[in-house]
Every structure is written in structure tokens, then in C-alpha cells.
Design a protein that fits this description.
single chain; three-stranded antiparallel sheet; TIM Barrel; nine-stranded mixed sheet; globular; Arc Repressor Mutant, subunit A; about 375 residues; alpha/beta
Length: about 375
């Protein structure tokens, strides 16, 4: 299985962010760390014998914690769970919040992959996003991580930002790829309700404040071309990596590996159930850890739908052989005529002989939500 550990704190809430994150006092953060460690130890008693192949520490901004706090969290994880020797252990970090002391502590505790949330190499765009750092501060953090021995680094980037042009997006891509990180995640901005960005920009593009649909589409296509030219292969709709450096944790999500979420509001999928933790900080800190919210036992239809809906995010697509192994029936029987229709429409293809994969074409990826939603039955 995989582990996800949520650290909900950040220095300042970004204007576009609708994640479960917020600024908080040092005292509250320490109380949270202590409660999280209790939850980790309790969960270890139930699931500790299962081999853990990946760990992802997300947020929020996990790097806002002190070095000793992250060390204590990792120590409790190692004492409570059976971590595979080759496990990928990732941690999100914001530029400007890491120090040499922190990075060396991460490395010593077993964290072997850092994911920097940069978003843009343009300082004006960063300011509009409400980021707490400049591009120059990102460079300092990135170089410091390299100096501290991290040889697996991801950089998050975001396109279709307010005032962004195709040219400024290309500049961000080439500058970041030129640093040679092992992995680049490139997402398009989504305006979420309840954020300052929604109040300012609304939900419609083309209002003069955000790049229009044609510019956004051009950014999307230039991303694929530029990153391929610079040695990155696209393996998922929004993710690019050097050979062998794909994010194993996220691939686990897309291929149905069970995962256990720990910390405020964290979601889990394990033993056929989906559930989440309390998302109210006061209640999380006051109550004993382990209470499950919104628990649902997935039906076979749920699992079949998710197999395609999530798995088709991957460039290589989904294995039809594995579908039949999992569910005891061919996919063509469950979805009569659908696979053939998608192939005729140019949205998908088959590849492989002994193990046959069904995958979206470039066109299918361009309108992936439409094609993937075809597998959701009433």
C-alpha cells in the first residue's frame, strides 16, 4: 500500500488555492504534529504489517514545519509501518521555506524526493498568484536541495495564469527544464469557487483577464513539444519525467494501489472502502484519532468505472488483461461497443499483443474528460 500524510499549514494562502490549508501559530502546529504522530502509531497497529511502497507528504506546505518536527513524524512512520527498502518518499516544499538544516534532516529521515511548488518563473505572475517567493528564491532552494544530496526533484508549474502569454509560459518551461529536474508537473489553472481568484476572475475564460481558450490550448501543446525536446517524456496527462523518474506514488493512485491517508482531512482507499479523516482542525486536535468520515464500500461497478476513468490518465493506458483478471469478465462485455466506438472516433488505440493496453490518442488526451466520462454508467 501507499501512505499519504497531510500537513495543512502554509505561510499564506495562495489566491487560487482551495486545498485544505491555512496559516497557523507555532503552538497549533506543534499540537498537530503530536496528534498526527498518535494517529500514525494507531494506524500502524492496524496496517503496520502491509508493505509500504511509497509515502507522500503533502499540504499545505510541509516544509513550513521545523526540522525536528518532520524528523519526529518520519521516525513514527518508520517505527509503525513496514517501509520497503526501495520506497519512494516524497515531500512537498515551497521555495523560501527550506534551509540547509531542514533539507539535511529530511534526507537523514529517509525522504528521497522533493517536490517544489514553483508555478511560474515570472515574478509578476508569482505575485498575482499570491506566492510567497520569487523565482530567484526558488533557484536558491533548488540548488540547496541539490547540494544536500537530493537527486530526485519535481517542479510544479501552472499555465493559463492571469496576464500570462504563450511566450511567458514557454520561457517558464525552458528555464525550469534547463535546470534538469527529474520530473515536471505542468497543470492548467482551474478557477475554484470559494477562492479570491473566483471572486476576481469568475469561472469564464476570455474575459480579458485570463488567457483565452485558444491561448490556453496553445500553451498545452507547447508544453508537450518543449519538454519532449528537452528530454522529458509525458507519462500522464499533466506529468513529465526523465526515464525511470516517474512519480511512483501518483502512478499508484492511477492504477488502483490501496492508500492510507493520515492527518487532517486525508482520504483513504483500502480494503475496498473509501473514507476520510475529520477536516475540522479543532475537532481533529480534540478527538482521538481514527474516526472515519464518509465511509463507502465500493461496488464492483464502482471499481470497474474507476479502473478506466483514472487509469486512462496514463499515456500507456490500461491493461485489458488485468481488467479481466480483476473482474473475471472482459472489458468489452462490461462496456459493449464502447471501446470500439472510441477507437473509430480517433480517441483511443490498442497496443501490445500478449498484454493488450487500451490508451487515449493525442486527440483523446486533448479532450480526456469527455472520453473518460464514457465509462461512468448510470
Amino acid at each position: 500500500m501507499e501512505l499519504y500524510i497531510h500537513i495543512p499549514f502554509c505561510a499564506r494562502k495562495c489566491a487560487y488555492c482551495d486545498f485544505l490549508s491555512f496559516p497557523q501559530t507555532k503552538e497549533t502546529m506543534q499540537n498537530y504534529v503530536e496528534k498526527l504522530i498518535k494517529e500514525i502509531r494507531r494506524a500502524g497497529k492496524e496496517y503496520g504489517e502491509r508493505p509500504v511502497s511509497t509515502i507522500f507528504i503533502g499540504g499545505g506546505t510541509p516544509s513550513i514545519l521545523e526540522a525536528d518536527q518532520m524528523t519526529a513524524i518520519m521516525q513514527s512512520v518508520k517505527e509503525s509501518f513496514s517501509i520497503e527498502e526501495t520506497a519512494e518518499i516524497s515531500m512537498e516544499a515551497n521555495p523560501g521555506t527550506v534551509t540547509e538544516e531542514k533539507l539535511l534532516a529530511y534526507k537523514k529521515s529517509g525522504i528521497n524526493r522533493i517536490s517544489f511548488g514553483l508555478q511560474s518563473a515570472d515574478n509578476r505572475e508569482l505575485q498575482l498568484l499570491g506566492r510567497i517567493h520569487t523565482y530567484e528564491e526558488f533557484l536558491e532552494s533548488y540548488q540547496l536541495a541539490r547540494a544536500c544530496g537530493f537527486d530526485n526533484i519535481n517542479v510544479d508549474l501552472m499555465s493559463a495564469l492571469p496576464g500570462q502569454t504563450v511566450e511567458s509560459w514557454e520561457d517558464t518551461l525552458t528555464r525550469v527544464a534547463g535546470l534538469d529536474p527529474e520530473h515536471i508537473s505542468a497543470y492548467s489553472l482551474i478557477i475554484e469557487e470559494g477562492t479570491p481568484f473566483f471572486d476576481k476572475y469568475g469561472e469564464e475564460r476570455g474575459n480579458g483577464l485570463l488567457p483565452d481558450e485558444d491561448a490556453e490550448r496553445e500553451m498545452y501543446h507547447r508544453t508537450k513539444a518543449i519538454l519532449r525536446e528537452m528530454g522529458y517524456e509525458r507519462y500522464e496527462i499533466s506529468n513529465y519525467a526523465k526515464a525511470g523518474k516517474e512519480c511512483r506514488h501518483n502512478i499508484g493512485y492511477w492504477t488502483g494501489i490501496p492508500y492510507l491517508g493520515l492527518g487532517l482531512g486525508a482520504s483513504s482507499y483500502i480494503d475496498g472502502y473509501r473514507f476520510c479523516n475529520n477536516s475540522d482542525l479543532k475537532a481533529y486536535l480534540a478527538n482521538e484519532p481514527g474516526e472515519r468520515f464518509d465511509e463507502v464500500l465500493l461496488t464492483e461497478q464502482d471499481l470497474q468505472e474507476e479502473y478506466f476513468f483514472v487509469g486512462l490518465r496514463l499515456v500507456k493506458g490500461v491493461s485489458l488483461n488485468r481488467f479481466e483478471e480483476l473482474f473475471g469478465v472482459p472489458a468489452e462485455t462490461v462496456y459493449p461497443g464502447l471501446l470500439e466506438k472510441m477507437i473509430r472516433d480517433g480517441g483511443a488505440e490498442l497496443h501490445g499483443k500478449e498484454d493488450v493496453f487500451f490508451h487515449l490518442t493525442d486527440f483523446g488526451m486533448d479532450v480526456s474528460n469527455y472520453f473518460m466520462s464514457q465509462f461512468l454508467q448510470d
